[in-house]
Every structure is written in C-alpha cells, then in structure tokens.
Task: inverse folding
C-alpha cells in the first residue's frame, strides 16, 4: 500500500498543480513513501461503527441577516495585488 | 521583562510614553538580529500609532487595556506596515489589504505591533527551518532550533524584546517553540479566537494564540483576542473570562504514554518535578492511560495535509502573490508559480493531502483518520469525566540542533507527538516552563483542559509558576 512510483508522484503533482523537476520528483518520491509508511499504521485501528469527526465545535449554519454591508476593501485596492492588471480586471495568460 | 500591566500603567499615567516603549522595543529587536527571529519591523506605523496613543493620554481619552504595549505578530497574520509573507516566496511582497481580526482587536486596545516574526513557510514545520527567508535560532543556544512553526515569536518573547507575541497553533506550533525557549505559549480551545485574516493551514485545527513570560500576561492578551467574530463563522459564542482562582484539590492525570523511555530522560524528570509542584499546591496527580494517543500523529499527518492541500490551492499566481514569468499557458502558470513559490515541505504536505483525498484512497486514509479522531476525542472525554486536567511534556526532547532533523520528515514530525492530540480534539492547552536540561535548554510541561476551560488551564499554570518562584 505504501510503495510510491515516480508515476504516482507525477500524478499527485498534477492533482496538486505543482510542476516538479525530475530531481524533485525523485526526492519527493522517497519522502512520500517514508511518510505514507508511517501513517499506514492507522489501518490497525478498528473503527467499525465509529462516526468521523470533521469539526469539533458542533456549530452549523451560522447565519447573518441578508443585508448589504460596506466592503472594507475596494476593487482598486485588490487589483493592486494582482501580478498583472488591465481594464479594471486581472490579466491572465490565454486559457484556450 | 516587565509585565504587561506595568507597561500600561506607565503609559496611562504619563510616566513613560508609548513612543519611548516602541523605540526601545525596535532598538532591542535590532540588537538581536543575529537570531533572525523577525522578518520585518513595522517601525513607521508603530511610531505613528504610539504618538496617537500618547496624544490620547494627554487629552484624557480612553486608551485601552493594552495601551502602549509593544508586540510582535507571526508573519502568517495579515497586518499593515510590512509585507505579510507567511515566510514564503509566494507572498514575498504581499501588501495586505486588511488586518487579521486578532491584530485589529489588539490595536483597538492600544497595543503596538513593532514587527513580523519568522515561521516555517505557511506554518509547515516544527523548527522554523522551513522558512523561505532563513532559520531562526533558539534564544538560549544559537546552535539549536527555535522550534516551530511560530519560532520567531517564541524567540522574540524569550529575548525580552516585547512582553507578548502572536502565534498560530495547528499541531503544536505555539506550544513546542514555547517549550524550546522557556516561555509560556497557549493554544486556546478551537473556536475561541478568530482566524479571519490569518493564512489558513488546517481549518479544523488552526487556532490563534500567544506567547508571554507569565501566565497572567497570557490571560490578559487572550481576554483581548478571544471572542466571536462575524467574519469567522467557526468562532464560538463568547465564553472566556480570565481568572487567577484555582479550585483546591484538582485531579490531574499524567498521561503515561507520553512518559515512556522514548522520551528524553531530562524531560521526564522535569515533568515529574512539575507534578510534584502541583501536589505541593494541593492537587493530586495520577498516571492515566490514553491508548489511542499512539495514533494521534498518524491521524494528524493525514487530516492536516488533506486540509492544507485545499487551503493552499488558492496560491495559483492569478489574483495575488507570485506569478511565474514567461509562461504561455494557464496550467503551466499554476504549476510553475507554485513550484517556484513553495518550499519542499509545502510540496510534501500538499501531495500527501492530494494522495489521502484521492479517489481510491479517501476511505482508507482520510475517512479512517477522521474516525480515529473520534476515538481519540472519546478517550479525552472519558478521562475528563474523572480528571480535571491532563499533564504531559510539551515535546519529547529539548530543542534539537539546527539541521539535525532537516532531511528526515518523519523524524521531524515526531517532535509534534505530544501536541497534536489536543489540536485534533480542539482542546485548550498551555506549555509552561518546567525546568532546563543539564545543557541549559528549556523544557516545557503541557496542561490540557476540557473544551472552553482555557481560563482554568492558564490559572493552573499560573499557580505552579507562583509556587516555583
């Protein structure tokens, strides 16, 4: 269960949107195998009939009134953060 | 270091100006640059705010519970006056458009941020060696790590530059560096303080907390930052009221699985001495068992990478942060911006996260981990039905050498083994100074309480602090 191939690493890199170099792929392969080897021990624990805990506060659906609130940040300020902007929009490379 | 209340008294009475305190803190920060605890100073803004507070004092206006108190903010919090980088190349020059709620609350009470502290990039780490901008050195022994991920904040507090500093704790990132540097560090109950404006790591365990030299100061800072925030819907309705009162005759459980032969003998010795002090204070300390605690680290290193892989998806080079140059196609833009911007540990964790969430593995890993999490929480609940608090070491060793664990991720993760259980269960936990090793390295004791018993945890640590003298 915990052997990881370089193909596995490339697949995970694609899922994670990481463009790795060949050296990185090999180093990460070893690291991931090491880490997965450690966490595999969790398979020993019998969890039949146990419900998962996704969050610990028990809070659900915290509501507020549907009223328009004053934005603290302007569009212009947010555009200043963009690596490239044009025409009041964030500029990106061709998608298609 | 003066207690916070003394700073405030001097500023409010006009005995010393907020500006003088700010200038002193900035000067001290410069003197200790070799520790590399800080990534930036927010000098201009700090002095401007100090002058404002001094003017308010002159005009007899109200100046807040923390008037003129200088403090430092971990660089994964958004704040004004310097870039907010999360110690990552992805956010290297990020000029935050907002401040974190916690920072706003402290400033509303007159506290003055003088700088941003170093951390493991994106808070991924337990030593502050994963910062993209250099390693932070331990405050007591420069050849040792500061601990992490809030290493900078722990060190700057230990070096008496400021009386308190902010950190974040996902699996031990406040408590462990507190232990390594001989200061107090609190991880509050999950949901006690707002995460708005802090770079997210694992949404089901991240909490905001602080470092200080005394338990009283921890309580004071927490009283300002705690509380429900409409901008963070996971915050609990207000409940925190600090106290110094400790019920007599508390029953405390020393978790025996955290005191095995794998744990450094000097650490065990310090914890046993801490237990003796608790007894001298009139409480009982008994050995208790938490069998599922041995799985806590495995649970953590499934759940947290899964959650952070989702939280770090936003760093795509599009709307803000680093964008790779000379890229023609979108997929390459994402891939290269992220590969260039993240450090190796970020990539390890993101990919583990993708793995445990991917189709075919989700049930065996992520779902199994969240079920195991329930087992762990149930064990805590059973123990808290009989015991008021639990005691463990904060870390299995004192601070290790810089570079010692750098090439072995699992060995590095094992430093978190004592702190992750309380994170997974969302429980309040404090690391309190409990002695030093023969080599002079600090050792911390961890007190864990039931959910929302933050005040009790801090008060108990304060009582031991007073007894130890």
Result:
């Amino acid at each position: 269960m915990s052997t990881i191939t370089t193909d596995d690493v490339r697949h995970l890199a694609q899922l994670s949107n990481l463009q790795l170099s060949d050296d990185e792929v090999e180093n990460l392969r070893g690291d991931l195998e090491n880490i997965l080897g450690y966490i595999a021990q969790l398979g020993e624990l019998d969890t039949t009939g146990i419900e998962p805990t996704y969050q610990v506060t028990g809070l659900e659906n915290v509501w507020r009134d549907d009223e328009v609130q004053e934005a603290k940040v302007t569009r212009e300020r947010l555009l200043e953060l963009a690596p490239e902007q044009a025409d009041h929009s964030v500029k990106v490379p061709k998608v298609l | 270091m003066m207690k916070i209340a003394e700073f405030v008294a001097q500023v409010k009475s006009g005995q010393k100006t907020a500006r003088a305190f700010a200038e002193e803190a900035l000067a001290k920060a410069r003197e200790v640059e070799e520790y590399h605890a800080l990534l930036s100073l927010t000098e201009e803004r700090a002095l401007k705010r100090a002058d404002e507070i001094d003017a308010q004092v002159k005009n007899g206006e109200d100046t807040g519970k923390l008037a003129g108190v200088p403090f430092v903010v971990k660089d994964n919090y958004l704040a004004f006056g310097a870039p907010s980088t999360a110690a990552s190349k992805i956010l290297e020059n990020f000029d935050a458009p907002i401040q974190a709620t916690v920072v706003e609350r402290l400033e509303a009470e007159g506290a003055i941020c003088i700088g941003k502290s170093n951390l493991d990039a994106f808070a991924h780490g337990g030593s502050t060696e994963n910062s993209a901008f250099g390693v932070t050195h331990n405050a007591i022994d420069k050849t040792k790590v500061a601990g992490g991920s809030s290493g900078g904040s722990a060190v700057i507090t230990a070096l008496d530059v400021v009386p308190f500093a902010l950190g974040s704790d996902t699996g031990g990132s406040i408590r462990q560096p507190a232990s390594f540097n001989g200061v107090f560090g609190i991880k509050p109950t999950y949901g006690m303080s707002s995460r708005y404006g802090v770079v997210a790591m694992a949404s089901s365990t991240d909490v905001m907390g602080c470092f200080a030299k005394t338990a009283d100061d921890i309580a004071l800072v927490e009283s300002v930052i705690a509380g429900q925030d409409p901008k963070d819907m996971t915050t609990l309705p207000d409940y925190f009221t600090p106290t110094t009162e400790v019920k007599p005759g508390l029953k405390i459980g020393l978790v025996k699985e955290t005191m095995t032969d794998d744990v450094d003998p000097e650490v065990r010795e310090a914890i046993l001495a801490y237990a003796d002090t608790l007894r001298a204070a009139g409480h009982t300390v008994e050995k208790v068992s938490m069998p599922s605690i041995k799985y806590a680290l495995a649970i953590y290193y499934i759940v947290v990478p899964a959650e952070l892989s989702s939280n770090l998806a936003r760093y795509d080079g599009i709307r803000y942060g680093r964008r790779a140059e000379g890229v023609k196609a979108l997929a390459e833009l994402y891939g290269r911006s992220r590969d260039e911007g993240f450090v190796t540990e970020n990539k390890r964790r993101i990919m583990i996260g993708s793995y445990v969430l991917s189709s075919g593995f989700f049930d065996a890993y992520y779902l199994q981990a969240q079920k195991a999490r329930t087992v762990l929480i149930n064990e805590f609940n059973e123990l808290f039905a009989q015991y008021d608090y639990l005691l463990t070491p904060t870390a299995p060793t004192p601070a290790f050498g810089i570079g010692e664990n750098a090439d072995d991720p699992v060995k590095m993760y094992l430093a978190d083994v004592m702190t992750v259980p309380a994170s997974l269960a969302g429980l309040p936990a404090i690391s309190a100074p409990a002695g030093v090793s023969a080599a002079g390295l600090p050792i911390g004791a961890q007190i864990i309480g039931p959910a929302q018993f933050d005040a009790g945890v801090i008060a108990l640590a304060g009582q031991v602090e007073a007894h130890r003298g």
User: Anything to note?
Assistant: Chain A touches chain B through 53 residues (CB under 8 Å). The longest helix of chain A spans residues 22-39. The mean pLDDT of chain A is 91.
